[in-house]
Amino acid sequence: MIVNLVSVSAASASSDEPQLGGVAGWAAGLMESLGAVGAGIAIALENLFPPLPSEVILPLAGFTASKGSLSIVAVLIWTTVGSVVGALALYGVGAVLGRDRTVALANRIPLVKASDIEKTEKWFAKHGTKAVFFGRMIPIFRSMISVPAGVERMPLPVFLGLTTLGSAIWNAIFVFAGYGLGARWQQVTDIVSMYSKGVLGIVALALVVFLAFRLTRGTGTRRSRTRSRRRD
Fold first, then answer.
1. What is the pLDDT of residues 115-140, one digit of tens each?
2. Which pTM was predicted?
3. CA separation, residue 119 to residues 36, 79, 115, 116, 125 (Å)
């Protein structure tokens, strides 16, 4: 009888543990092997490879801390360090790429002109600090915003300060959410995935509008040139 009760309680305890696979299983393995440093490494890689979702890694780290396996302070510190390291790597890519190479690449992309780069430069010169800070809290852009910062050679202390602050806020929200929800930490992932899809939808719509505008403008320009030639 006692043996049966023990086996039943053990089975129910194991059923409470989330079955982890994919990115979550990989991140859990890093944290199990390296502790909070593993969470930092996972977030650094997430910055370099945006398909790795921070909204999975960070709540999982918070949940792991809630079980006493990790210190939540160490998790917050190391995930922020990982964010900054990943952002610095992309900043370096932008700095090495530079303006001339960026313009050359833009000229090779259909429907993109060098004037688009100039407009982006002017916009970044005016709003760059806000873009870097708030960009750290927007999926996909939180990684890519570091590249134009490097291209424009934003002063490194300013970039580091904004990136550290923005990353610390983003990381803390998800780590504490995972810590508070415990075994239900995956609810955070479900909510943020909707947010991410919304961002992607807005980006896709903006891209369609941009392409439609360019195609319409290009067609109009060709028609006006044809008419002028006929008059000549």
1. 656 666 777 778 888 888 988 887 77
2. 0.69
3. 42, 34, 6, 5, 10
